[in-house]
Amino acid sequence: MGKHVVAKISEMTPGVRKIVQLEGRSIGVFNVNGEYYALKNNCPHQQAPLCRGNVTGMTLPSKPGEYIYAREGEIIRCPWHGWEFDITNGKSIYDPHKCRVKTYEVTVEEEEVTTVETYPVTVESGNVVVHV
Amino acid sequence: MTKKKEKTRIIDCDVHTYPKHIDEIRAYMDNPWKQRYKGGGRGFFDNPVHGSRLDAEPSSGGPPGSDPEFLREQHINEYGIEQAIILPRAFCNLHPDPDFATAIAAAYNEWLAETWLGKYNYDGVFKGSITIAHQDPVAAAKEIEKWADHPHFVQVMTDSGARAPFGQRQYYPIYEACDKYGLPFAIHPGTDGMGINEQPTPGYPTHYIEWHTCLSLAFQSHLVSFITEGVFERFPNFKVVLVEGGVSWLAPLIWRLDAEYKALRYEVPWLQKRPSEYLRDHVRITSQPLENPDNTNHLIQILEMMDAKNLLMFASDYPHWDFDSPRHAFPNNISDELRNRIFYENAKELYKL
Q1: pLDDT tens across A2-45, in order?
Q2: Are B112 and B18 in contact (CB under 8 A)?
Q3: Which contacts (CB < 8 Å, 24+ apart) does range B33-37 have?
Q4: Partner residues linked to A91 by β-bridges
Q5: A:60-79 residues touching chain B, CB 8 A cutoff
Q6: Is residue B24 left, alpha or beta, with left meaning phi > 0 and alpha meaning psi from -120 to 50?
Q7: Of B54, B322, B324, which has the smallest distance from its Cβ to A52's Cβ?
Q8: How far is residue A78's CA from residue B308's CA, in Å, rounded to a whole number?
């Protein structure tokens, strides 16, 4: 159980994903519209590397014959069988209650500044930190 | 549990390999076919998500299933597969011109023999299927004869897409050759409803999810036809392999056919035994995509009912999107004996490996 700096926020702009190895676990870190999320890189179905799948949108529940495509960038599809998962909470789309992938907390933390003089620190200089 | 699974010996009965580029196939064709052949698959009812595992694309370029070293690393070595039965996807069965279809099948066989069964096959892990165009059964029989003595071709294959059920007599030159050379006849989904072939539903379904679910229907029709037409009486050495056509339907279908037989044997008097006995003696079925009900015990009961111990052979369908992992496709609590029959012994016996 620990905190791990996985990237500078400057290298993880919206839409960027990074797969990292933390405490023996493969974890995918995502920037979805400016918010950071982390998922276990392991599909609950047949243990495929889920986080290597396509990040995409989804067709929202709709009436028969109606198509509402939305949530672009918020959904990841397993690279094997194509199951959809909500990156923001790890829940599968087909059965969010019973089928979900483990999520990890992600925070943005400022870099430690060791200079004597003080400077304004903007969020661009921070680190993306995953809490395993 | 993991330790037990690692000991499982595996013959994978459905692995797909592809040329790096379609010119690899064209190199084995003469004109006029070489100029005409552009490759191509079924044209529609493509998976709207993705057709192959996204992680199966080799870094060397080319499509999934085209790089032998990557395929070995990701599939053969990863799971400890002892033999992989290769079924190429020529899609020759949709063409209205039987000569063109036969030329495509012949080119795929030459290509497979030289590459995956030849220079890529230094340890003999790959076994192959002779592709035939069932539009011209006499030409198909000649193609079978051509390759029958090859040490690594272990079966004949065709698409389930057809113009007539496979038990009918126009196909018999194919089965006569299979029977003569002891080569099982494998049927794999593809070209159903495409080109000249019938779609085995009432008309065309709208969506891929329907088309893909209903692929089993063609297999059921072909199986009933093989049995009732007396193909296995006519060709006593002939074996059929149903690949990727579903699994869980088998037991109730054969119960139904056995029930019909009690009175309707009168109509097909050449049947010397119950349909289920022909099934046991002449037909094998591969596992992927294995239906997995919420209640795992129901699947275990299905395996018992269908005589999986003798009929079922493991297949992964690598590198396609609905790949079944050897580690995770089956319930953990099937017996070691049943697992060994499904993953190894049944295929070993059928293909004489």
Answers
A1: 899 999 999 999 999 999 999 999 999 999 999 999 999 999 99
A2: no
A3: B33/B100, B33/B103, B33/B104, B33/B107, B36/B100, B37/B100, B37/B103, B37/B104, B37/B107
A4: A100
A5: 77, 79
A6: alpha
A7: B54
A8: 30
B124-152 confidence digits (pLDDT tens): 999 999 999 999 999 999 999 999 999 99
Scanning every residue of chain A, which has its alpha carbon at the shortest distance from the alpha carbon of B52? A80
Q: Is the pTM of this model over 0.80?
A: yes
Residues in a beta bridge with B313: B286
Query: How many residues are listed for chain A in this entry?
Result: 132
For residue B319, cis peptide bond before it (omega within 30 degrees of 0): yes
Do the beta carbons of residue B190 and residue B200 sit within 8 Å?
Answer: no
ipTM computed for the complex: 0.85
| Mean pLDDT of the B297-317 span | 98
CA angle B66, B69, B73 (to 5 degrees): 110
Between A and B, how many residue pairs show a Cβ–Cβ distance under 8 A?
A: 37
Residue B62 DSSP class: S
Q: What are phi and psi of B236, to 5 degrees?
A: -65, -20
